[in-house]
Amino acid sequence: MAQSIPPGLPLRALYVDFNSYFASVEQQLRPALRGRPVGILPVLAETTCCIAASYEAKAFGVKTGTPVYEARRRCPGIVLLEARPPLYVEMHHRLVATVESCTPVGQVLSIDEMSCPLMGSERQRDKALALAARIKATIATRVGQHLRCSIGIAPNTFLAKIASNMQKPDGCTVLEAADLPQALHRLELRDIHGVGRAMESRLWRHGIQTVEQLCAANAAQLRAAWGSIEGERMHAKLRGEEIAPTDSERASVSHSHVLPPELRYESSAYSVLHRLLQKAATRLRSYALVAGNVHVRVSFRQQGESWQSWDWRVDQPVDPTADTRTLLHALDVLWRQRPRTRAEPFAVGVALTRLASAAQRSGDLFDDQESAERLNTTLDAIARRYGRKSVYFGGAHEALAAAPLRIAFQHIPDLEVEGD
After folding, report:
1. Which of 82, 180, 328, 354 has the highest Cβ tally under 10 A?
2. For 55, how many CA atoms within 13 A lie in the half-sphere containing its CB?
3. Among residues 358, 258, 353, which one has the least CA distance to residue 296?
């Protein structure tokens, strides 16, 4: 039998999820796009895929990950636009401030999601619904009517996030203790935050194939299915407990880029990698971290009977550093190992891993660390004031127009550090 939520547990969280965010920002800023199917691309190329789609496009089956050729086939009238991340970041900050004008924002979870704690009388259903309506109305008045959001209200942030996905677009769903867990039973396992494809397979192997079975399982069963304490945390969250997020140390600093057709050559791929690594080094210093490993990835594709894709991945250990020149030297060492092939590079990426606090770095007797730090500090200051293209290492010259600001899941770029 499903384990119910303790009776009387109040509503404690309100979750705001902006609908089709990138596409909605474009429709808000460009009136001609309103009511039309829109797809957002990382680069304007027929060989890439959509990273976002408006609800008008979603009605035709276009979604995140849909290849351009498939989007055109499904929706002949679709408007395809290259993403403009700096605008999405600026709009994000406006939206956070707008929600803050109605109620305190407790956590910003991503570029298009935030949670707000409910206090006092706001924990009553009618008062919580009135607050949700006020947030929607204030956004429409101060920011724009085309930036719609779905709001979930529940006993904890986890359930409020689930509720926010239950009625889209522009919905508002309340999950009270009396509604739970039965209100969740109609969902699929993958609708539960924290259950991806691999976790779904693990749950199946443990005899849990539905959300009803997930809710009925005890803490020990879920710990066994997850293979860690995360299973017990899931059990508690499903029962309405507010679990503090775990302290998570940053595992890597990375950047990647899908190459536009004009840069799908060996020399251009190297130049883009150079630019990405310079950006990653700047971010690393802004976090007061050093890296002990440089990882490089190049995705190739070759046309035979059909296009075949494959990745080349390689790592180069380094003494812990945040020095751009040292990291670029590691890139050069790796690049000399590249495969000699006629296949075209179509995507590249770099990642700095084995991170540690810069304060814990021990100096090298033969390393002029102080000189390197002065140079990096000067370069970072010039870039912040005049833009990243005002000063750079020459290997990136061919790629100055490439690899613009990107927004990754749960990472909202700092425009001062990462902007062009």
Report:
1. 180
2. 15
3. 353
Among 198, 199, 235, CA closest to 215: 235
Residue 176 resides in a domain: no
Helix or strand or coil: residue 202?
Answer: helix
Cβ-Cβ contacts under 8 Å for 166 (sequence gap 6 or more) = 152, 173, 187
Residue of 268, 374, 258, 245 whose CA lies nearest to 309 = 258
| pLDDT (tens digit per residue) in 337-349 | 998 888 889 889 9
**Pick from 230, 232, 229, 233: nearest CA to 242:** 233
Angle at 410 between CA 191 and CA 292, to 5 degrees: 125
Per-residue pLDDT tens over the stretch 205-240: 999 999 999 999 999 999 999 999 999 999 999 999
Which residues form the catalytic set? 113
CATH number of the domain enclosing 143: 3.40.1170.60
Select from 241, 12, 242, 9 the least CA-distant residue to 119: 12
| Rounded Cα distance, 256 and 157, in Å | 31
Place of tokens 């003494």: 319
Quote the CA–CA distance of 238 and 245 in Å, as a whole number: 15
pTM for the model stands at 0.70
* Residue 364: Cβ within 10 Å count: 11
Residue 65: domain span: 6-102+117-149
DSSP reduced 3-state for 144: coil
